TrEMBL record:
GO MF, one annotated term: microtubule motor activity
Native organism: Otus sunia (Oriental scops-owl)
Occurrences of domain Kinesin motor (ranges): 5-78
Descriptive protein name: Kinesin motor domain-containing protein
Taxonomy, superkingdom: Eukaryota
SUPFAM superfamilies: P-loop containing nucleoside triphosphate hydrolases
UniProt family annotation: Belongs to the TRAFAC class myosin-kinesin ATPase superfamily. Kinesin family.
Keyword Ribosomal protein: no
Length: 78
């Protein structure tokens, strides 16, 4: 039996015309997990429950930015 871990990828979606931009940073490290930090300023978080927290950090196998083409994502993931 082959023992393999679950792989989790992220792709940052471009904003729609009426969406306000939050701040995010991507740290793609080839040797370890990539991290995505999302910062939601309090004024953009109005109307959402976020418990006054402004920074969220997540780890993924790889993170694709807004400019990533579909074929690049497919070749890397599939």
């Amino acid at each position: 039996m082959v023992k393999e871990t679950i792989r989790v990828y992220a792709r940052v979606k471009p904003l729609g015309r009426r969406q306000q931009a939050g701040i995010y940073s991507v740290d793609n490290d080839e040797k370890s997990l990539s991290s995505l930090e999302i910062i939601v300023p309090r004024d953009l978080a109005d109307g959402f429950v976020n418990n006054k927290r402004e920074s969220y950090k997540f780890k993924f196998q790889k993170i694709f930015d807004q400019e990533a083409k579909q074929d690049v994502v497919f070749d890397s993931v599939a």
